[in-house]
């Protein structure tokens, strides 16, 4: 279970997007009561799901609950749960579509960077340059859209070269004391780290020599209490322990916003700044990315991608080096490229060229569908979160999960995205049983 509750994270998402929580016909009290009930329902469904063996069986419980409840207030909360698990399964287009925050223009938006005076730069180099004088860099992410983790992951090497040596991530579990020495996350390492890109971010940080910091607040803390405790944990675990430390933080949505009201109090970043006296470089990544529906894209995003057609994440800077940000409280806003799908999966999974597509067939699924294919580094244990995973599913809707399909039916296939190296592939079905496995090698050129 995530140590921060879904209702809290939903509120963070709505606040970050400027989406109001009530309608004219609905009082604040009624909306809050409905949200509280939806959170309790969602948590109960999650608990039931997590008793099942394996991700496919867990997702089946969530999907049935999704189909069986048409209450829009319930879906405001629960669709985010569903989207998290779709991202865990590697179904990124579905995760993006299930929970999407419409990015409408806000009164406090700055003028578009296309209005004059700004130049686009590749974000990976520009942010490394901007970070040079800072002691802390805070990145945010949209939890069900792992695209918003990819730039952070790619920047870890450049930031390490600049002297950054601590990496902290939201919802990491303090109980996994072996994470650093083991070198890879397992299910007990955290919540969002069940998703392969999030897990790869941790692997990369450990491989580069970062000290990993689990800074999450007590599970009972919420609102301003949680933000205060997170900031205090960062100060105690990093800067009190190592006054010369330089820190990279990965958090969700507006937790990194340095000013403005947040959940009835102040954000983690604002508390951090007041507590430590350290001004973090804050990188906003949860607005300017391609949504499942173009109607949810911010108008600035639409205009920038149409005009510049960037092939990689970009930021905008003035001639004096000052970066553009959409709203106050953040230092810089990142624009991600338009999404391209290849065999149903986004090509940003290559992580800027660090990984290669590797074609897999469902032959080893032994005709049992849906079939989960997972790739683990050959040097890691069976408990490792995979480097990548995806679901192969071509069974007719009339068939029960795990039932055999006719031999004559076409065999589904797809592409995993993996760094060059040796991997163990495993194939499993909805009841948690593995059908088979194999060892593969991924070359620098892919298959």
Characteristic terms for this protein:
single chain; 447 residues; alpha/beta; six-stranded parallel β-sheet; four-stranded antiparallel β-sheet; globular
Percent of residues in helical segments?
A: 25-40%
Task: Characterize the biggest β-sheet.
Answer: 6 strands, parallel
What's the alpha carbon Rg, rounded to whole Å?
A: 22 Å
Global structural class: alpha/beta
The mean pLDDT is 90
Order of helices and strands: HHHHHEHEHEHHEHEHEHEEEEEEEEEE
Quantity of strands, as a count: 16
Number of domains: 3
Q: Low-confidence parts, pLDDT < 50 over ≥5 residues?
A: 1-24, 395-408
Across the major sheet, the strand order is 4-3-5-2-6-8
Kindly identify the CATH topology of the largest domain.
Rossmann fold
CATH class of the largest domain: Alpha Beta
Q: How many H/I helices?
A: 12
Distance between the termini: 37 Å
How large is the share of residues in beta strands? 15-25%
Question: In CATH terms, what is the architecture of the largest domain?
Answer: 3-Layer(aba) Sandwich
Q: Report the principal-axis shape.
A: globular
């Amino acid at each position: 279970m995530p140590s921060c509750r879904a209702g809290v994270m939903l509120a963070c998402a709505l606040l970050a997007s400027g989406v109001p929580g009530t309608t004219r016909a609905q009082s604040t009290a009624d909306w809050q009561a409905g949200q509280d009930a939806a959170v309790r329902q969602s948590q109960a469904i999650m608990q039931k799901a997590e008793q099942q063996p394996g991700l496919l069986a867990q997702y089946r419980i969530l999907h049935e609950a999704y189909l069986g409840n048409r209450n829009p207030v319930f879906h405001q909360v629960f669709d985010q749960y569903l989207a998290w698990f779709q991202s865990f399964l590697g179904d990124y287009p579905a995760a993006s579509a299930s929970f999407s925050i419409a990015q409408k223009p806000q009164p406090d938006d700055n003028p578009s960077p296309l209005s004059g005076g700004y130049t686009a730069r590749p974000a990976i180099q520009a942010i490394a340059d901007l970070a040079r004088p800072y002691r802390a860099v805070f990145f945010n992410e949209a939890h069900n859209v792992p695209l918003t983790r990819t730039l952070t992951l790619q920047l870890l090497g450049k930031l390490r070269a600049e002297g950054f040596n601590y990496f902290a991530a939201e919802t990491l579990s303090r109980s996994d004391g072996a994470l650093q020495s083991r070198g890879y996350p397992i299910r007990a390492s955290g919540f969002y780290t069940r998703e392969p890109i999030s897990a790869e971010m941790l692997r990369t940080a450990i491989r580069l020599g970062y000290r990993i910091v689990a800074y999450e607040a007590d599970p009972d803390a919420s609102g301003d209490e949680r933000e205060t405790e997170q900031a205090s944990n960062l100060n105690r675990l990093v800067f009190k322990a190592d006054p010369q430390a330089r820190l990279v933080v990965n958090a969700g949505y507006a937790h990194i916003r340095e000013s403005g009201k947040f959940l009835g109090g102040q954000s983690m970043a604002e508390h951090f700044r007041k507590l430590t006296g350290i001004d973090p470089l804050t990188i906003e990544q949860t607005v300017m990315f391609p949504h499942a529906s173009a109607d949810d894209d911010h108008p600035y995003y639409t205009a920038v991608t149409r005009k510049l057609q960037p092939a990689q994440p970009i930021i905008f800077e003035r001639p004096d080096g000052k970066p553009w940000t959409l709203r106050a409280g953040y230092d810089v806003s990142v624009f991600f490229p338009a999404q391209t799908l290849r065999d149903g999966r986004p090509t940003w999974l290559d992580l800027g060229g660090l990984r290669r597509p590797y074609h897999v067939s469902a032959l080893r699924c032994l005709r049992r569908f849906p079939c989960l294919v997972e790739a683990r580094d050959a040097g890691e244990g069976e408990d490792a979160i995979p480097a990548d995973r995806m679901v192969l599913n071509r069974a007719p809707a009339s068939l029960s999960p795990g039932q055999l399909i006719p031999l004559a039916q076409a065999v589904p296939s797809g592409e995993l995205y993996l760094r060059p190296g040796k991997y163990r592939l495993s194939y499993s079905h909805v009841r948690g049983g593995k059908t088979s496995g194999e060892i593969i090698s991924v070359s620098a050129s892919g298959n």
